Amino acid sequence: MTAATAIDVTGLTKSFGGRRVVDNVALRVAKGEIAGFLGPNGSGKTTCIRMICGLLTPDAGSGTVLGLDLRRQQRAIRRQVGYMTQKFSFYEDLSIEENLAFVAGLYGLPRQAVRDTLEDLGLTSRRTQLAGSLSGGWKQRLALAACIMHQPRLLLLDEPTAGVDPKARRQFWDEIHARALGGMTVLVSTHYMDEAERCHRINYIAYGRLVVSGSVAEVIAGAGLVTLTVRSARPGALAERLRRAPGVGQVEPFGTALHVTGTDRAQLEAALAAEGVTGQPAETSLEDVFIRLMELSEDNVR
Ligand SMILES: Nc1ncnc2c1ncn2[C@@H]1O[C@H](COP(=O)(O)OP(=O)(O)OP(=O)(O)O)[C@@H](O)[C@H]1O
Protein backbone atom coordinates (compact mmCIF):
# COMPACT_ATOMS: atom_id res chain seq x y z
CA MET A 1 0.00 0.00 0.00
CA THR A 2 1.13 3.51 -0.70
CA ALA A 3 0.36 6.38 1.65
CA ALA A 4 -2.05 7.68 -0.97
CA THR A 5 -4.23 4.56 -0.89
CA ALA A 6 -7.12 4.43 1.58
CA ILE A 7 -8.61 1.09 0.56
CA ASP A 8 -6.52 -1.63 -1.03
CA VAL A 9 -8.15 -5.05 -0.84
CA THR A 10 -8.01 -8.12 -3.06
CA GLY A 11 -9.76 -11.46 -3.23
CA LEU A 12 -12.63 -10.38 -0.96
CA THR A 13 -15.03 -13.29 -0.75
CA LYS A 14 -18.05 -13.93 1.45
CA SER A 15 -20.74 -16.63 1.47
CA PHE A 16 -23.97 -16.79 3.42
CA GLY A 17 -25.56 -20.22 3.86
CA GLY A 18 -23.30 -21.71 1.19
CA ARG A 19 -24.18 -18.98 -1.34
CA ARG A 20 -21.30 -16.82 -2.47
CA VAL A 21 -22.52 -13.23 -2.42
CA VAL A 22 -19.12 -11.53 -2.81
CA ASP A 23 -16.71 -13.29 -5.11
CA ASN A 24 -13.05 -12.35 -5.35
CA VAL A 25 -13.49 -8.58 -5.31
CA ALA A 26 -10.46 -6.32 -5.57
CA LEU A 27 -10.94 -2.67 -4.78
CA ARG A 28 -8.52 0.26 -4.61
CA VAL A 29 -9.59 3.67 -3.50
CA ALA A 30 -7.13 6.55 -3.35
CA LYS A 31 -7.00 8.89 -0.37
CA GLY A 32 -9.38 11.82 -0.84
CA GLU A 33 -11.25 10.04 -3.59
CA ILE A 34 -15.03 9.71 -3.81
CA ALA A 35 -15.54 6.19 -5.07
CA GLY A 36 -18.98 5.10 -6.22
CA PHE A 37 -20.23 1.59 -5.71
CA LEU A 38 -22.93 0.60 -8.14
CA GLY A 39 -24.72 -2.54 -9.16
CA PRO A 40 -28.08 -4.31 -9.15
CA ASN A 41 -29.93 -5.06 -5.91
CA GLY A 42 -28.38 -7.90 -3.97
CA SER A 43 -25.08 -7.79 -5.86
CA GLY A 44 -22.99 -7.59 -2.68
CA LYS A 45 -22.29 -3.87 -2.18
CA THR A 46 -23.42 -3.75 1.45
CA THR A 47 -21.53 -6.95 2.24
CA CYS A 48 -18.34 -5.51 0.72
CA ILE A 49 -18.76 -2.27 2.67
CA ARG A 50 -19.20 -4.21 5.92
CA MET A 51 -16.05 -6.23 5.27
CA ILE A 52 -14.13 -3.04 4.53
CA CYS A 53 -15.24 -1.31 7.73
CA GLY A 54 -14.35 -4.28 9.90
CA LEU A 55 -17.91 -5.37 10.79
CA LEU A 56 -17.79 -8.63 8.81
CA THR A 57 -14.84 -10.97 8.48
CA PRO A 58 -14.22 -12.08 4.89
CA ASP A 59 -14.07 -15.82 4.14
CA ALA A 60 -11.10 -15.05 1.91
CA GLY A 61 -9.19 -12.01 0.80
CA SER A 62 -6.74 -9.61 2.30
CA GLY A 63 -5.57 -6.06 2.20
CA THR A 64 -5.48 -2.81 4.06
CA VAL A 65 -7.93 -0.11 5.00
CA LEU A 66 -6.26 3.18 6.02
CA GLY A 67 -3.03 1.22 6.20
CA LEU A 68 -4.50 -1.22 8.74
CA ASP A 69 -4.75 -4.94 8.12
CA LEU A 70 -8.27 -5.92 7.05
CA ARG A 71 -8.22 -9.17 9.04
CA ARG A 72 -6.05 -8.45 12.05
CA GLN A 73 -6.91 -4.83 12.84
CA GLN A 74 -10.69 -4.72 12.52
CA ARG A 75 -11.17 -2.83 15.79
CA ALA A 76 -8.69 -0.14 14.83
CA ILE A 77 -10.33 0.17 11.40
CA ARG A 78 -13.77 0.61 12.98
CA ARG A 79 -12.48 3.52 15.06
CA GLN A 80 -11.26 5.43 12.01
CA VAL A 81 -14.19 4.76 9.73
CA GLY A 82 -17.61 6.42 9.58
CA TYR A 83 -20.34 4.08 8.37
CA MET A 84 -23.78 5.31 7.41
CA THR A 85 -26.02 2.31 6.99
CA GLN A 86 -28.87 2.04 4.52
CA LYS A 87 -31.49 2.18 7.26
CA PHE A 88 -29.93 4.56 9.75
CA SER A 89 -31.94 5.09 12.91
CA PHE A 90 -32.06 7.49 15.85
CA TYR A 91 -33.91 7.94 19.06
CA GLU A 92 -36.95 9.59 17.57
CA ASP A 93 -38.04 11.07 20.91
CA LEU A 94 -34.67 12.73 21.47
CA SER A 95 -33.59 16.01 19.86
CA ILE A 96 -30.87 16.32 17.24
CA GLU A 97 -28.45 17.52 19.91
CA GLU A 98 -29.36 14.73 22.35
CA ASN A 99 -28.90 12.11 19.67
CA LEU A 100 -25.46 13.48 18.83
CA ALA A 101 -24.56 13.73 22.53
CA PHE A 102 -25.40 10.04 22.85
CA VAL A 103 -23.12 9.14 19.92
CA ALA A 104 -20.38 11.38 21.34
CA GLY A 105 -20.64 9.43 24.58
CA LEU A 106 -20.16 6.12 22.73
CA TYR A 107 -16.96 7.42 21.17
CA GLY A 108 -15.79 9.13 24.35
CA LEU A 109 -15.82 12.53 22.62
CA PRO A 110 -16.03 15.83 24.49
CA ARG A 111 -19.23 17.90 24.48
CA GLN A 112 -17.48 20.40 22.21
CA ALA A 113 -17.47 17.78 19.43
CA VAL A 114 -21.29 17.90 19.42
CA ARG A 115 -21.33 21.70 19.18
CA ASP A 116 -18.72 21.70 16.42
CA THR A 117 -20.59 19.06 14.42
CA LEU A 118 -23.92 20.87 14.80
CA GLU A 119 -22.28 24.04 13.52
CA ASP A 120 -20.40 22.29 10.76
CA LEU A 121 -23.50 20.67 9.30
CA GLY A 122 -25.81 23.64 9.75
CA LEU A 123 -27.83 21.90 12.46
CA THR A 124 -27.33 24.42 15.29
CA SER A 125 -30.62 26.28 14.81
CA ARG A 126 -32.54 23.01 14.79
CA ARG A 127 -30.65 21.35 17.59
CA THR A 128 -33.67 21.10 19.92
CA GLN A 129 -35.95 19.58 17.27
CA LEU A 130 -36.97 15.96 17.87
CA ALA A 131 -35.32 13.56 15.44
CA GLY A 132 -38.69 11.88 14.81
CA SER A 133 -40.16 15.11 13.45
CA LEU A 134 -37.42 15.79 10.87
CA SER A 135 -37.96 15.58 7.11
CA GLY A 136 -36.00 13.00 5.10
CA GLY A 137 -33.28 15.46 4.15
CA TRP A 138 -32.66 16.64 7.73
CA LYS A 139 -32.72 13.07 9.04
CA GLN A 140 -30.04 12.19 6.55
CA ARG A 141 -28.00 15.23 7.61
CA LEU A 142 -28.28 14.10 11.23
CA ALA A 143 -27.12 10.61 10.18
CA LEU A 144 -24.14 12.13 8.41
CA ALA A 145 -23.36 14.25 11.48
CA ALA A 146 -23.48 11.15 13.69
CA CYS A 147 -21.04 9.24 11.53
CA ILE A 148 -18.50 12.03 11.00
CA MET A 149 -18.44 13.49 14.51
CA HIS A 150 -15.42 11.37 15.48
CA GLN A 151 -13.62 12.72 12.39
CA PRO A 152 -13.09 9.46 10.52
CA ARG A 153 -10.58 9.34 7.68
CA LEU A 154 -12.83 7.09 5.62
CA LEU A 155 -16.55 7.46 5.15
CA LEU A 156 -18.61 4.50 3.96
CA LEU A 157 -22.08 5.48 2.83
CA ASP A 158 -24.65 2.85 1.90
CA GLU A 159 -27.32 4.39 -0.32
CA PRO A 160 -27.33 7.57 1.78
CA THR A 161 -29.81 9.56 -0.27
CA ALA A 162 -32.52 7.00 -1.00
CA GLY A 163 -35.88 8.78 -0.72
CA VAL A 164 -34.40 12.26 -0.24
CA ASP A 165 -35.55 15.16 -2.45
CA PRO A 166 -33.22 16.59 -5.16
CA LYS A 167 -32.30 19.75 -3.23
CA ALA A 168 -31.32 17.84 -0.10
CA ARG A 169 -29.40 15.33 -2.24
CA ARG A 170 -27.47 18.14 -3.87
CA GLN A 171 -26.62 19.68 -0.48
CA PHE A 172 -25.56 16.26 0.76
CA TRP A 173 -23.22 15.82 -2.19
CA ASP A 174 -21.77 19.32 -1.75
CA GLU A 175 -21.02 18.29 1.82
CA ILE A 176 -19.35 15.06 0.67
CA HIS A 177 -17.20 16.88 -1.89
CA ALA A 178 -16.14 19.42 0.73
CA ARG A 179 -15.03 16.57 3.03
CA ALA A 180 -13.10 14.89 0.21
CA LEU A 181 -11.29 18.16 -0.49
CA GLY A 182 -10.31 18.12 3.17
CA GLY A 183 -8.69 14.70 2.64
CA MET A 184 -11.49 12.35 3.66
CA THR A 185 -11.99 9.29 1.48
CA VAL A 186 -15.53 8.27 0.60
CA LEU A 187 -16.97 5.00 -0.69
CA VAL A 188 -20.64 5.46 -1.51
CA SER A 189 -23.15 2.98 -2.85
CA THR A 190 -25.99 4.36 -4.93
CA HIS A 191 -28.55 3.45 -7.54
CA TYR A 192 -28.77 7.01 -8.86
CA MET A 193 -26.95 7.76 -12.12
CA ASP A 194 -26.54 11.46 -11.32
CA GLU A 195 -24.78 10.47 -8.10
CA ALA A 196 -22.51 8.05 -9.94
CA GLU A 197 -21.52 10.99 -12.13
CA ARG A 198 -20.51 12.99 -9.05
CA CYS A 199 -17.93 10.34 -8.06
CA HIS A 200 -14.27 10.54 -9.06
CA ARG A 201 -14.33 6.85 -9.92
CA ILE A 202 -17.04 4.25 -10.08
CA ASN A 203 -16.94 0.54 -9.37
CA TYR A 204 -19.69 -1.63 -10.79
CA ILE A 205 -20.43 -4.93 -9.11
CA ALA A 206 -22.87 -7.60 -10.34
CA TYR A 207 -23.59 -11.00 -8.81
CA GLY A 208 -20.80 -10.53 -6.31
CA ARG A 209 -18.13 -9.77 -8.91
CA LEU A 210 -16.49 -6.45 -9.66
CA VAL A 211 -17.17 -5.94 -13.34
CA VAL A 212 -15.65 -2.58 -14.12
CA SER A 213 -13.83 0.27 -12.43
CA GLY A 214 -12.82 3.71 -13.68
CA SER A 215 -13.90 7.29 -14.18
CA VAL A 216 -17.36 7.78 -15.67
CA ALA A 217 -15.80 8.67 -19.04
CA GLU A 218 -13.57 5.58 -18.96
CA VAL A 219 -16.44 3.29 -18.05
CA ILE A 220 -18.64 4.67 -20.83
CA ALA A 221 -15.83 4.50 -23.41
CA GLY A 222 -14.86 0.99 -22.29
CA ALA A 223 -18.36 -0.36 -22.87
CA GLY A 224 -17.97 0.14 -26.64
CA LEU A 225 -21.59 1.14 -27.16
CA VAL A 226 -22.99 3.28 -29.94
CA THR A 227 -26.11 5.36 -29.38
CA LEU A 228 -28.29 6.99 -32.02
CA THR A 229 -31.34 9.09 -31.41
CA VAL A 230 -34.39 9.02 -33.69
CA ARG A 231 -37.59 11.00 -33.75
CA SER A 232 -40.87 9.47 -34.77
CA ALA A 233 -44.55 10.41 -34.82
CA ARG A 234 -45.28 7.02 -33.23
CA PRO A 235 -42.24 6.25 -31.06
CA GLY A 236 -43.98 3.46 -29.15
CA ALA A 237 -44.65 1.30 -32.21
CA LEU A 238 -41.19 2.04 -33.67
CA ALA A 239 -39.53 1.08 -30.37
CA GLU A 240 -41.37 -2.26 -30.37
CA ARG A 241 -40.11 -3.12 -33.85
CA LEU A 242 -36.57 -1.88 -33.25
CA ARG A 243 -36.21 -4.00 -30.11
CA ARG A 244 -36.66 -7.08 -32.30
CA ALA A 245 -34.20 -5.94 -34.99
CA PRO A 246 -30.75 -7.58 -35.19
CA GLY A 247 -27.92 -5.55 -33.65
CA VAL A 248 -30.22 -3.40 -31.52
CA GLY A 249 -29.52 -3.60 -27.81
CA GLN A 250 -31.59 -1.10 -25.89
CA VAL A 251 -34.35 1.21 -27.11
CA GLU A 252 -35.38 3.84 -24.59
CA PRO A 253 -37.92 6.62 -25.05
CA PHE A 254 -36.76 10.12 -24.09
CA GLY A 255 -39.80 12.31 -24.54
CA THR A 256 -40.75 12.00 -28.20
CA ALA A 257 -37.31 10.67 -29.20
CA LEU A 258 -35.88 7.18 -28.93
CA HIS A 259 -32.34 6.38 -27.84
CA VAL A 260 -31.21 3.30 -29.69
CA THR A 261 -28.07 1.58 -28.43
CA GLY A 262 -26.01 -1.30 -29.76
CA THR A 263 -22.43 -2.43 -30.16
CA ASP A 264 -22.16 -2.09 -33.95
CA ARG A 265 -22.87 1.22 -35.68
CA ALA A 266 -23.43 -0.30 -39.15
CA GLN A 267 -25.97 -2.77 -37.79
CA LEU A 268 -27.77 -0.04 -35.85
CA GLU A 269 -27.95 2.19 -38.91
CA ALA A 270 -29.22 -0.70 -41.00
CA ALA A 271 -31.96 -1.43 -38.45
CA LEU A 272 -33.05 2.21 -38.56
CA ALA A 273 -32.84 2.40 -42.35
CA ALA A 274 -35.14 -0.66 -42.58
CA GLU A 275 -37.70 1.42 -40.68
CA GLY A 276 -37.21 4.42 -42.97
CA VAL A 277 -35.65 6.58 -40.27
CA THR A 278 -32.19 8.07 -39.77
CA GLY A 279 -30.45 8.30 -36.44
CA GLN A 280 -28.43 11.20 -35.10
CA PRO A 281 -25.33 10.39 -33.03
CA ALA A 282 -25.96 10.77 -29.30
CA GLU A 283 -23.92 10.24 -26.17
CA THR A 284 -24.23 6.83 -24.57
CA SER A 285 -25.54 7.26 -21.04
CA LEU A 286 -24.10 5.64 -17.95
CA GLU A 287 -27.47 3.95 -17.46
CA ASP A 288 -27.20 2.31 -20.91
CA VAL A 289 -23.74 1.06 -19.95
CA PHE A 290 -24.90 -0.37 -16.61
CA ILE A 291 -27.84 -2.15 -18.22
CA ARG A 292 -25.46 -3.65 -20.77
CA LEU A 293 -23.02 -4.72 -18.02
CA MET A 294 -25.87 -6.28 -16.07
CA GLU A 295 -27.03 -8.26 -19.12
CA LEU A 296 -23.49 -9.48 -19.80
CA SER A 297 -23.12 -10.52 -16.14
CA GLU A 298 -26.45 -12.36 -16.25
CA ASP A 299 -25.21 -14.29 -19.28
CA ASN A 300 -22.03 -15.20 -17.39
CA VAL A 301 -23.80 -16.63 -14.35
CA ARG A 302 -26.41 -18.59 -16.30
N1 LIG B 1 -26.33 -11.71 6.99
C1 LIG B 1 -26.78 -12.28 5.88
N2 LIG B 1 -27.24 -13.55 5.88
C2 LIG B 1 -27.69 -14.12 4.73
N3 LIG B 1 -27.71 -13.53 3.53
C3 LIG B 1 -27.26 -12.26 3.47
C4 LIG B 1 -26.78 -11.57 4.64
N4 LIG B 1 -26.39 -10.32 4.25
C5 LIG B 1 -26.62 -10.25 2.92
N5 LIG B 1 -27.15 -11.40 2.44
C6 LIG B 1 -27.50 -11.70 1.03
O1 LIG B 1 -26.35 -11.43 0.26
C7 LIG B 1 -26.72 -10.88 -1.01
C8 LIG B 1 -25.96 -9.57 -1.21
O2 LIG B 1 -26.54 -8.60 -0.35
P1 LIG B 1 -26.01 -7.13 -0.20
O3 LIG B 1 -26.92 -6.45 0.80
O4 LIG B 1 -24.56 -7.13 0.08
O5 LIG B 1 -26.26 -6.52 -1.65
P2 LIG B 1 -26.38 -5.02 -2.14
O6 LIG B 1 -25.62 -4.95 -3.42
O7 LIG B 1 -25.98 -4.09 -1.06
O8 LIG B 1 -27.93 -4.86 -2.44
P3 LIG B 1 -28.90 -3.55 -2.45
O9 LIG B 1 -28.52 -2.73 -3.65
O10 LIG B 1 -30.25 -4.16 -2.58
O11 LIG B 1 -28.70 -2.86 -1.14
C9 LIG B 1 -28.22 -10.73 -1.00
O12 LIG B 1 -28.77 -11.82 -1.68
C10 LIG B 1 -28.57 -10.77 0.48
O13 LIG B 1 -29.85 -11.31 0.68
TrEMBL record:
Gene3D superfamilies: P-loop containing nucleotide triphosphate hydrolases. It comes from Paracoccus simplex. It holds the Pfam family ABC_tran. CDD domains: ABC_DR_subfamily_A. This is ABC transporter ATP-binding protein. Residues 7-232 form the ABC transporter domain. GO terms for molecular function: ATP binding. Keywords: ATP-binding, Nucleotide-binding. InterPro entries: AAA+_ATPase, ABC_transporter-like_ATP-bd, ABC_transporter-like_CS, P-loop_NTPase.
